[in-house]
Amino acid sequence: MKVAFLGAGRMATALAHGLIEKKVLTSEHVFASDPADEARASFEKRTGAKTFSDNRRMLEHAEIIILAVKPQQVKTLLEKIGSSLENKLFISIAAGVVLARLESLVHATTRLIRVMPNTPALVGAGASVFSLGARATEKDAMVVKGLFSAVGLVEQVPEAWLNEVTALSGSGPAYFFAILEALLDRAAIQHLPDDLALKLATQTMLGAAKMVLETGKSLSELREAVTSPGGTTFEALQVLKNRNMHEAFVEAVQAATRRSKELSALA
Question: Are 132 and 140 in contact (CB under 8 A)?
Fold first, then answer.
């Protein structure tokens, strides 16, 4: 199985590196094309795989093509090479570009899958979801699961869910970074050294997430296990409740979902 990336940016490089590191593929079976010399050099250095400046030359080498360019570049790119994707599996990670739009730009026999990864894929801890196009098969779905599991969790969903996925896991890392910024504010911790505070806060966030994933307990059970009546955690949670933290996050995800729908309509 030979995989070619249209675009050699950070996400393409991270995915290719994960595939090779996990021994899903060897570097001889991975290719990338990009007009930028710097991007190609970085891809080659991280993966050991071959790169091209010409898309059509690269497409001759692969059965699976992964579209990893910016959404505004998709139309121009596919108008040039869409006919070269005959009978190939074409996977798009271009944000906001819907399957119907992609299908209008590629060969009639191209099998399409749309994937929404998130930035923790850059460190092998991503949360990716994918939706099948009309001609994609269950075998194609298994291929996508195998590829993207190299950089984290992978789940299949209907395309209609992708705007909410974008708001939850796509934008989600920024929510947690914002929480860490608040926890590390000097008004909250006046005496701890910066490096120690950052280590403690990030390890605590990682540990809390692992407890959710590995204990099988509900969020309320886990929260209550930390919260003694009248204790420090109870006092902290009362402040968050009084400041409507829960409602603020609900509104934030709703706002991100609305914006995702708007951007998809423009792509």
Answer: yes
**What amino acid is encoded at 137 in this protein?**
T
Instruction: Return the half-sphere exposure (C-beta side, CA atoms, 13 A cut-off) of residue 207.
Output: 6
Q: What are phi and psi of 133, to 5 degrees?
A: -75, 175
Mean pLDDT of 219-236: 97
Q: How far apart are CA 57 and CA 60, in angstroms?
A: 6
For 189-223, what is each residue's pLDDT tens digit? 999 999 999 999 999 999 999 999 999 999 999 99
Q: What is the Cα–Cα distance from 214 to 216, expressed in whole angstroms? A: 6
- The residue written with tokens 């930035």 in the block is 119
* Among the listed residues 170, 2, 168, the one whose alpha carbon sits nearest the alpha carbon of residue 71: 170
Nearest to 81 by CA among 131, 137, 7, 140: 7
Give CA–CA dist 39/10, Å, rounded.
8
Structure tokens at 218: 């509900």
At 240-252, the pLDDT tens digits run 999 999 999 999 9
Euclidean distance between CA atoms 128 and 115, whole angstroms? 7
Residues β-bridged to residue 153: 127
Collect all residues with Cβ–Cβ distance below 8 Å to 52 and sequence separation of at least 6: 31, 32, 33, 40, 58
Secondary structure of the chain: what % helix, strand, coil (to 5)?
60, 15, 25
Q: Using CA atoms, how far apart are residues 23 and 147, in angstroms rounded to an integer?
A: 11
**91, amino acid identity:** I
How far apart, in whole angstroms, are the C-alpha atoms of residue 38 and residue 229?
A: 57
